[in-house]
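for the record, two folds in this file. i put them one after another cuz i was lazy. first one right below, seq on top, structure tokens after. the second one comes after a little note so u can tell where it starts
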Amino acid sequence: MTATEPVFSVRDLWKVFGPKAERIPGNKEYAALSAEELRARTGCTAAVRDVSFDVRKGEVFVVMGLSGSGKSTLVRCLTRLIEPTSGQLAMDGEDVIAMDKTRLRELRRHRAAMVFQHFGLLPHRSVLDNVAYGLEIQGMSRPERRAKAADIVTKVGLEGLEDRRPGQLSGGQQQRVGLARALAVDPQVLLFDEPFSALDPLIRRDMQEEVIRLHREEGRTMVFITHDLNEALRLGDRIALMRDGGIVQLGTPEEIVANPADDYVRDFVRDVPREQVISVRRAMRPARDGEGESGVALKPDTLVSDAIEAVARSGAYCRVVDNGRTLGVVGYEELLAVVAGLDDETEPKEVAAV
């Protein structure tokens, strides 16, 4: 795979359930129907409808939507746990649709590991042996796989619990075992299918922190499925928001909150604290005489919430500086406009550097 080649490349992907499902993709008449109309006319459900996207190496790509939007079906199509009805699907440039059983088994065992909502732990096995299970399937010797599993157990914060059975663990600890089991096979991509939705809020936040930490330390590519907008905004480098099987909007958290594609997305993000997602690059104005030469310096990706504190402490405007050049300035007026939703810029401002 080249530096620019995506890990996953998906083009015009459909998954249709129902009689003669193959007649639906490519049919312009059917494509124009709503989900309800399509079911009434054909008896079919388009769980994934004409979806295209790339997953870049090293990013956390989040797919989110309400129940029934098609997100879990989509992530299962990536490794053909569910067979797509039509479309193109490649991993590292290799055609996944064309893979035979042997090649597909290799992809699932070595290249892409899934972490599910339901942990699927083996109740009669210890934590260590549950973590080592995938390595056992690969044929690794018992001493070698247990040694590797022990390292992963420590990495996910389960040190000292190696000999416990799943029934002796909390829900959060069980999910850590599931995460460790996926990590143990050293996959190129981790696929998460709503893994934390059954956990209590505090435990869920801890597990989100664990994913953020692991990604920061390893830079591993992740595809994360969730119905929780806050979770998506917290974890995702980019977010694909789904509705009725299709992608309504794909972009960074900031792009989606600052520039929703339609009323559906706008309603989705309505209660998001904008200052915690939008950066000063979108809020800044051009520097006036002398303003670009002094004052507290902020990076362009500084969140407005952090800039508010900086402005409050300084008692004046702050400069937005990139590589030693002042791009613009922000003060109370610009920052409060973001908080109030009065900023109507559709793109980050491009201001001549001072």
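(here's the note) second protein begins now
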Amino acid sequence: MSAGSVAVVVTEEIGVPSWDLYELSIPCTVFGKPQPDLADPWYDLRLCGTGERGGADGPAGAAGLALRTPYGLDDLAGADTVIVPSVPDPCVEEGAPLPPGLTEALRRAHDAGARMVSLCTGAFALAEAGLLDGRRATAHWMHTAQLAERYPKVRVDDSVLYVDDGDVLTSAGLTAGLDLCLHLVRRDLGAYVANQLARRMVVPAHRPGGQAQFIDLSVPAADDQGLAPVLAWARAHLDRPLTVEDLAERAALSPRTFYRRLQAATGTTPLQWLLDQRLARAQSLLESTDLPVEKIGELSGLGTANNLRHHFLKRVGVSPSDYRRAFPRTAPDIPLAG
């Protein structure tokens, strides 16, 4: 087993926003700090700037840092692993161009045999380079819809912490990048080394479930003011056996029209919307109360504890008990609907 070299892309000529430093620091911490008692030699870490040999001449702006790096984009092709921690926000939110030369440098690195990795919004760079075409990939759940829309050839999965597709790997945002980096260590140096490294970083070696457990299920994709009152009423009465016909009647619409308008507003069917609201209700109750699972199933409208567990595992990716442990009670009891 060999650690090899890791090249991390740093978009330094436009400044690294302070909120992106977390993703940048993850590979630096995992691969940059020698661990001679675990593996010797450890990884050879290289920070590769997108300017000319680390030419960070422009200002970073009020919320960022300008960085100079000893390596440039040409050095990506010589690395065993290439990691793109993130891309600038305008590239994600507004479709602004990526730093000049980055996509071509990523293609050359891949053609040279490098293992390609993205953390969080770094997936947009791999997608722009065509390296995710036909592959399953992920990113932070807040950006996966944009990723899927902009790059339809990518099979985007917003439910997982990371995707290992062999020579191309992608992760969700923030701490999921740490999960993926530890996975790379596990692949390269074995479970023992990865587990010991995780202990030193005071993090789990492997977290249960995926990022689906962090998604806010209650947020609609769009808004329809005409439906707002009936949807608010439905959220307040989730413990009742609601049907599409019930909601349509309350909205003074035919079931077919209600179905069409709700799907346009939320991007999902009425039954799926109801299920998502019930699961969101169950999440809130698990986070904010000490109620038993049986009672939570009843109050959320999911019925029995077994039915709650079934849907929770399928949609959220972890059991209600695991979810409660991951999100311990920190808020006062929320009002119970009825």
